[in-house]
Structures
1.
Amino acid sequence: MLFIADWLSRAVPPRPARSKCTKISGTVTTIERSADTHDIIIGLENGGGNTYYINRGVELIPDGNTLDSIIQNRRAMISYYDGGWNLFGNGTTRHICEIVVNNKVVYTEFDDL
């Protein structure tokens, strides 16, 4: 029972705070959509072996083609949650909190804008 409660508590990432996030810059090389989880998964050229995802991004960003045209093959600054939350526990998948391209916020989960 405790295992199930722990797993469920990890099923939804916590609301991010800027102070709990780490930033990484790189050229966006891949953008994929998960049919199962509805996440948008982004790969960076120098992503350090990590992938980055927008939780339920397919639902949050209905016109994903617009996002693709803004970030694909462009240098982006990604802020990702660095608070230890990881549903799959593999340590290489990071929850995106914000994406900035050319000093413009193109996606954010922060409330302080």
Note: The CA atoms of residues 18 and 110 lie 7 Å apart.
2.
Amino acid sequence: MNTVNASTGFSPFQLCSGFSPRVLPSFSPASTHAEGKEEQAARDLIERIHLDFLEAIDNLAAVKMVQAHYANVHRGPKITYNVGDEVLLSTVNYWREYMQEEDGHAAKFMPPFDGPFTVLKANPESSSYTLNLPEHMNIHPTFHAALLKPYQKDGVEEFFIEHIVGEWKYRQQKQYLVRWTGYGPEHVLWRPAKELEDTIALDNWERAKTAAKSGTKL
């Protein structure tokens, strides 16, 4: 009950109660002032439970994305890289951190892949590769080949929204679950509503919702 779940990041007790168990102080009759404080504390507790619940859902979504990614890549042919090769790095493992940065990234669409990055060390036997990452990324530079793809120097990597597959409210802000053209479900990402303003995908999503409520067919 009090063990932290590896997927949600919370213990069952914390998701139900909003806090980790602790020793309770001795009971004493509450004054009117104390009752006011308790009412505020109760509201704060409800809000904390709500936020923890949303974060747990977010964590589970991230875990499912990673699981789907590895399941799909292991079905494909094995690709090896050499020192000096340029590759693209999947953002599936750090998209949440990317969204929370304050350097302007959060105001843009996060692509399914980042880069290109140069391979500094290659270990094809273990399918692990060390990349020349910029310091601001602040993540370990060695990755499994499943998270990499060859970089095409003559091509321009562009990312287009295929369609929206879901929506929810996170910290009182509406977000949409976006699927990208040419990429599988392991690369779906939650994006803030403001980033999808005036997009065809959002128009189609809203029309589909309206049709579903009215019982009409598109």
Note: The helical segments are 12-17, 32-73, 95-100, 200-214.
